[in-house]
Amino acid sequence: MNRFVMVMAAAALAASAFGAFAQDARQILAATGKLRVGVYFGSPTSMVRDSKTNEVHGLSYDLGQELARRLNVPFEQVSYQRISDVLEGMKAGDVDFTVSNSTPARAATVTFSQNLLTIELGYLVAASSPIAVIADVQKPGLRIGVTKNSTSQGTIPKLLPNATVVPAENYKRGIEMLEHGEIDTYATNKPTLFEMSDQMPGSRILDGRWGEEHLAVAIPKGHEAALDYIQHFVTEVQTSGLVAKSAEQAGLRGAVKAQ
Question: pLDDT tens, 58-82?
Fold first, then answer.
């Protein structure tokens, strides 16, 4: 009996401590009284809309809703054109939470959790493209479309020094550029490429990959006191299957592994 009482007392103490942990995290992560979640349309890693059901899903959107529920604060969607704009919004104090490719450059302006999910980077070509395999992209003189201010825009010139990099305002503009022959291929993460390909009959995502992105939860600099809570949150949504469910509902393709 004494052992049972001790176990129950320990559990109650842990629950009390976690409750205080969550309250402290709420004051840091949702200081305005709501959780402002930065998203952009067009990528399952952020937010997409199902054309049949009209439902909205995506890692940033779904995980942001779950975190708001756990913190017991309202969820507020803050929409941008692309991830670089989301991160600028976070830097400006307008965004509390998002999911982003975790890179050293971005870590200079926001704080990241441990890896949430790893996804492949690839190339998309139009139906009429003579580019057949990923090795063809090494040919000099190709015009490579990338999303403006993306990680790809900084990486592709180093990877393909003989190519011309052509930034697009967003993935929709990337589709137009491919369809009008303004670029030879588009380079970004495969979940976004699949979304683009679905809107371009006959288009192809080349087999193989030119790199990986390691997605993580991003919170503003100065909120590091809540990082332990965010790390616990990431572990729980991975092990509970919420990350996998969100990825499936958003139609996320091109994931390598969850970590």
Answer: 999 999 999 999 999 999 999 999 9
CATH fold label, 2-118+213-257: D-Maltodextrin-Binding Protein; domain 2 (3.40.190)
pLDDT at 15: 37
Give pLDDT tens digits for 223-256.
999 999 999 999 999 999 999 999 999 989 888 7
pTM for the predicted model, two decimal places: 0.79
**Cα torsion at 14, 20, 23, 28 (round to 10°)?**
-110
Q: Position of tokens 């809309």?
A: 49
Q: What is the mean pLDDT of residues 96-101?
A: 97
C-alpha separations of 171 from 32, 118, 216 in Å? 32, 20, 21
> CA 126, CA 135: separation in Å to the nearest integer?
16
CATH superfamily of 120-211: Periplasmic binding protein-like II (3.40.190.10)
Kindly tell me if the per-residue pLDDT of 8 is higher than 50: no
